[in-house]
Specification:
336 residues, alpha+beta, 4-stranded antiparallel beta sheet, 17 strands, 22% helix
Length: 336
C-alpha cells in the first residue's frame, strides 16, 4: 500500500538528530537525518543519485556530506558540489524534505514541499511548557499504520488489553461521541462515578468513585492527541488532574511503523519518581498494544476473504479516520 506523502509525520525527537548521519524510513522513503554546524536539522533522501548507495554510510565534512562509495559530495540543500578526488561536478541532486522543529520534536512532510502547511500541525506547546512535565520516546511496531490509528481511536480496548493499568469495565461500557471536520476526527468519552483504574490510583492518589474523561483528536495522516482528566466524582472542571498524550503515527516500510509517544501531566511537576513510574507503566501498556497489533497484522496480511468485517458504535471514530485516509490516498493517486 502506498503511504500518504502530503502530510506531517513525527520524524524524530530533537535529541535523536545530531552531527551523526542517521537513517529512518518515513512513509516508504529512506531518509538521512543530520544537523548542519549551525544546528539546523536536515533530511535528505538516503540514496546517492550515482549508484543508489545509502548516504548515511558516508561522512560529514563540515556541512558537506560525502558518499562513502564513490565520493559524491552534497551540501545541505541536497545539491552535488563535487566528487572527491575527481574533477567532475555532475548536475546531481538528492531530494531534501521539508522539516519543522518545534517543542523538542522534528516533523517531516515527505510529499510536495510546496504543499507543506505548518498550520496543519496542532498546538503542541505543552510539550516543553513549564506548566507540564513528562517524558517521551519511540517504539518500533511491525504492523501497518492504519491498525495503530484504529487502536487509538477506539479506546474501548483498554477494558480488555490493559485491565491491570489504565483499563476497567467502564471504558468499554461508556459510549463515545464523535465529531468530524474536513481535517480532524474527534471523540469524547466522559465516564462519571466509576472505579479508578490502578494507574491513576497510584499516580494521583485517587479513591473511587471518580470522573474520567478521554477527549481524542486525530489529525491525519499521523498525529493523535489524547486529553485526559480525572477528578473525584462531582468535582467541577477545570479542577482535577490532567494529562496529555501525543502519539506520532509514522509509517516506515510496508507493514511497519514508528510509534512515537509523549506523555505530560500538570500535577506533581517535581516528582521524579512519579515520572519514572508513569514512563514504566506507559511502556508496559504500549507493549501490550504492540503485541496485539503485530498479531492482528499477521491476520490482516494473510486474509483471503472469509467473514465480512464487523463494526459497532465504538468503531465510529476509527471508521471515519479510515475513510479520511482513503480519500487522502485516492487524491494523491489521482494527482500522480
Amino acid at each position: 500500500m502506498t503511504e500518504i506523502q502530503n502530510g506531517w509525520y513525527l520524524a524524530a525527537w530533537s535529541e535523536e538528530v545530531g552531527r551523526t548521519l542517521t537513517q529512518r524510513w518515513i512513509a516508504g522513503n529512506p531518509v538521512c537525518f543530520y544537523r548542519l554546524s549551525d544546528g539546523t536539522p536536515v533530511a535528505i533522501e538516503d540514496r546517492c543519485p550515482h549508484r543508489r548507495y545509502p548516504l548515511t554510510l558516508g561522512r560529514l565534512d563540515g556541512d558537506v556530506l560525502e558518499c562513502n562509495y564513490h565520493g559524491y559530495r552534497f551540501d545541505g540543500t541536497g545539491r552535488c558540489v563535487g566528487v572527491a578526488e575527481q574533477r567532475d561536478t555532475p548536475r546531481a541532486q538528492v531530494l531534501r524534505y521539508r522539516l519543522v522543529e518545534r517543542h523538542g520534536a522534528v516533523w517531516i512532510w515527505p510529499g510536495d514541499p510546496s504543499a507543506a502547511d505548518e498550520s496543519q500541525l496542532p498546538d503542541l506547546s505543552w510539550l516543553d511548557s513549564e506548566q507540564w512535565t513528562g517524558f517521551h520516546g519511540v517504539l518500533p511496531l511491525k504492523a501497518r499504520h492504519l491498525l495503530l490509528v484504529e487502536n487509538l481511536l477506539d479506546l474501548s480496548h483498554e477494558t480488555f488489553l490493559h485491565p491491570t493499568t489504565i483499563g476497567n469495565r467502564a471504558v468499554a461500557a461508556t459510549p463515545i461521541e464523535v465529531s468530524t471536520t474536513d481535517r480532524v476526527v474527534s471523540f469524547t468519552r466522559h465516564m462519571v462515578g466509576i472505579e479508578a483504574p490502578p494507574f491513576y490510583v497510584h499516580s494521583m492518589g485517587l479513591t473511587s468513585p471518580v470522573d474520567r474523561w478521554q477527549d481524542g483528536d486525530f489529525y491525519p495522516p499521523g498525529v493523535f492527541i489524547l486529553n485526559i482528566r480525572l477528578a473525584p466524582t462531582g468535582t467541577s472542571e477545570p479542577e482535577g488532574y490532567h494529562m496529555k498524550v501525543l502519539y506520532g503515527l509514522t509509517p516506515s516500510v510496508e507493514g511497519e511503523c514508528h510509534d512515537f509517544y509523549a506523555v505530560s501531566r500538570d500535577f506533581k511537576l517535581d516528582d521524579a519518581d512519579l515520572t519514572q513510574y508513569q514512563h514504566k507503566q506507559q511502556l508496559a501498556v504500549m507493549r501490550e498494544d504492540v503485541d496485539a497489533l503485530e498479531a492482528q497484522e499477521l491476520m490482516v496480511a494473510t486474509s483471503r476473504g472469509g467473514a465480512p468485517e464487523s463494526s459497532i458504535r465504538s468503531d465510529l471514530a476509527a471508521l471515519r479516520a479510515r475513510r479520511m485516509l482513503e480519500r487522502m490516498r485516492a487524491a494523491e493517486a489521482a494527482a500522480r
